[in-house]
Amino acid sequence: MANALDVAQFILEKHGEMTTMKLQKLCYYSQGWSLAWDEVPIFDNQIEAWANGPVVRDLYRTHRGQFRISKIQGGDSNALSEAEQDTVNAVLSAYGHLTGQQLSDLSHNEDPWINARGDAPEGSTLSTPIDRDALQDFFGGLDSAQRAS
After folding, report:
1. pTM of the model
2. What is the distance between the alpha carbons of residues 62 and 107, in angstroms, rounded to a whole number?
3. How many domains does the chain fold into?
4. Domain limits for position 50
5. Which of 10, 13, 69, 146 has its CA 20 to 30 A from that of 59?
6. Residue 149 domain-assigned?
7. In a domain, 146, yes or no
8. Which of the two residues, 75 and 148, has the higher pLDDT score?
9. Boundaries of each Antitoxin SocA-like Panacea domain copy (predicted)?
10. Cα–Cα distance measured from residue 99 to residue 89, given in angstroms and rounded to the nearest whole number
């Protein structure tokens, strides 16, 4: 199984340089749709509900302090299976045109992030894990046509 760094590197190779916020959200959507379509996670790394949306802390550690990024140190896009590549490519087709802020705003309206944040005040530094079952239930309940357009 690939890890979040591998998925992020694949995204960067396919889509090119982007903001770190956008990269984080595209990894989140890759995980969500992998759970819905394939019923398995695309990576084992935990996703947390941060103030600006879902974040993979392990990925954050590799790009901390950067605004834009074009390569992930330690990421190997070849680690993704063909099915995982297909999932990420579908996510890029559906969400790749959106900015990091638009993806953050989108995630703020979705149950996995909302429920993980609970009653935390807006802007709180709370970093509660987003439950994989919640991701699978949420994305599995969406029609593929409901992806970002």
Report:
1. 0.94
2. 22
3. 1
4. 4-141
5. 146
6. no
7. no
8. 75
9. 23-113
10. 17
